[in-house]
Design brief:
heterodimer, A: 224 residues, 10 helices, B: 246 residues, 8 helices
């Protein structure tokens, strides 16, 4: 069995052992979304206008919540140190970890957004666009918040610093995704913006693991 | 000459002594230029036919906004130097530039808001340039916060370096995406490629002030770099000698 497959299976086993890690962000998402009509007015026209944006922001926050400690347990039990001795580039292993995280932690979060959409009476075609933007944009978001998590690994008092540091870099993703949603509401062509969003995600997924691996090396105290 | 010139930068003591002299030159030069440019701009330059006297804030706002962006690029250059040549002084420069950059970004946001109230009728709009300046402020804050959170200065410097490099790759993307999103701000007051839309009596003092602010920024950064060098080298013999003499 290849190393890559064993790593993915390990991640899966970890999740089965601690299902709370997936459920909590989903729980958070639904809670935030149910606060919106309570804080605003229960007017379904207004809600359907702002609903998709609210869900996007809530998903972003939930994603940050579950990526914040992405490398923490691997760091404290020494798995990251073992990675340095494997005959694979560190960036590749980091990439695998990020893919596993996206598959097992972020994807469930996206799958629950239709329920949130129904709660905020978002129209069907916008909901579809929302799902597509989330699927395309979250790899980039996962990579960047992973970098935030890796940079703050060594400092015990960092708190949500990793999130604060990375949030400004999400701006292009949020703007492009919002553009797609607005166009979906008008019924105009969303493909060009989706392509840009996809390009951003692909570039982020290729380059950010290199930065993450540098940050991990730094915190393990290896040569950098 | 050869590599000697380059290796000198590795010596904190050499830098501390030289920077003191450079600081003196920069300080007086900046003071002269700023007094000249500001007096010229605020008192002698003609009144704008549309905005009246309120336009005169450009003699502060434009140089400061230029610097806010240029300093991020300077910080990225320092990060590259840190990773390629492992020069500790580059890390010191990164640390002081981050603080200075945040200060200039805040100044440009505040001076812009003060100007926006009489001209646009509001302190803040979600316009592209204002927004990207705000994001820039958050990026600077992130660099400062990350350094503060990590205890070991070497490790903190490298972590900040990674963050700065990732940020500098993203900065143009952020800028263009925000611009595409919403634009209300007037186009740049001064461009290198075009003749300015203002008369010479308005833009020459502006140019004097821009150069003045740049040199003032160098003065401030050198000063804070010297302080950081002293703090980091506090256990070395030359710093002890320096302190005991004072």
């Amino acid at each position: 069995m290849s190393l890559e497959r064993r790593m993915l299976i390990r991640e899966l086993k970890l999740i089965i052992a601690r299902p709370g890690d997936i459920i909590k962000p989903m729980w958070f998402l639904v809670l935030v979304v149910s606060m919106v009509p309570l804080a605003l007015v229960p007017d379904s026209d207004l809600l359907s206008d702002i609903g998709s944006a609210m869900i996007w922001v809530a998903t972003l926050l939930a994603l940050l919540l579950n990526t914040e400690h992405l490398f923490q347990s691997d760091f404290s039990d020494g798995v990251l140190e073992q990675w340095l001795f494997l005959n694979r580039p560190l960036a590749w292993l980091v990439g695998l970890k990020l893919i596993a995280h996206w598959l097992f932690h972020v994807l469930p979060l996206i799958l629950i957004t239709p329920i949130a959409g129904i709660m905020l009476s978002v129209p069907m075609e916008v909901l579809l666009a929302l799902l597509v933007t989330l699927v395309i944009a979250t790899p980039a978001l996962t990579c960047f918040s992973g970098l935030g998590a890796a940079l703050t690994l060594g400092s015990s008092r960092s708190g949500i610093l990793g999130v604060l540091v990375m949030m400004p870099l999400f701006v292009p993703v949020v703007i492009l995704a919002a553009g797609v949603l607005i166009r979906a509401m008008d019924g105009s062509d969303t493909l060009p913006l989706l392509a840009l969003l996809g390009a951003f995600s692909v570039v982020a997924a290729t380059l950010v693991p290199i930065a993450v691996s540098a940050a991990i090396r730094l915190n393990i105290g290896g040569s950098n | 000459m050869g590599w000697r010139w380059f290796h000198q930068w590795g010596s904190p003591r050499w830098f501390y002594e030289r920077a003191g002299r450079w600081q003196l030159v920069c300080g007086w030069l900046a003071l002269t230029l700023l007094i000249m440019g500001s007096l010229w701009g605020l008192a002698l330059a003609p009144v704008d036919y549309q905005q009246g006297n309120s336009y005169r804030i450009i003699y502060l706002h434009v140089p400061v906004a230029f610097l806010a962006q240029a300093l991020y690029a300077a910080m990225a250059v320092c990060a590259v130097v840190l990773f390629v040549w492992k020069m500790k002084l580059a890390d010191v420069a990164m640390q002081s530039i981050a603080v200075m950059g945040l200060a200039f970004t805040a100044l440009s946001l505040i001076s812009g808001a003060v100007w926006g109230k009489p001209t646009w009728g509001t302190y803040w709009v979600w316009d592209a340039r204002l927004t990207s300046m705000l994001i820039l402020a958050f990026l600077y804050l992130g660099v400062i916060g990350l350094r503060a959170a990590i205890q070991d200065p070497d490790q903190a410097g490298k972590a900040c370096g990674i963050l700065v490099l990732v940020g500098v790759v993203n900065l143009p993307i952020i800028k263009y995406s925000v611009e595409w999103w919403n634009t209300l701000h007037q186009p740049a007051s001064l461009k290198l490629t075009e003749k300015p839309a203002m008369p010479a009596s308005m833009w020459i003092p502006l140019l004097v002030n821009i150069v003045g602010y740049y040199i003032a920024a160098v003065y401030l950064i050198l000063g804070s770099m010297r302080a950081i060098v002293l703090e980091r080298e506090r256990r070395s013999a030359w710093v002890r000698e320096l302190v005991s003499r004072a």
